Amino acid sequence: IKILMEKLIRTVEQTGIKEIAVAGGVSANSGLKESVTGMGEKYGWKVYFPALQFTTDNGAMIAMTGYFRFLAGQFDAQDTVPMARMIL
To answer: Fewer Cβ in 10 A, N or C end of the chain?
Structure first.
């Protein structure tokens, strides 16, 4: 959390942005939410966090993609090499 807060403060200082939205799985972290909200109050930022039920995790999205591929009979070979970024 400390590293993320340092980066957030530095980014706000460099850009002047005062509206902060946190999304994705990290937005479910109560410590992060408390830190960002506290800094928002201190520095006058508008801070936005989704409701806990909307704090999706990338792992869950990947699992759902795999599930639907399985149902569709789409399989890859065991020696398939994963790629972080696909070039189309």
So the answer is: C
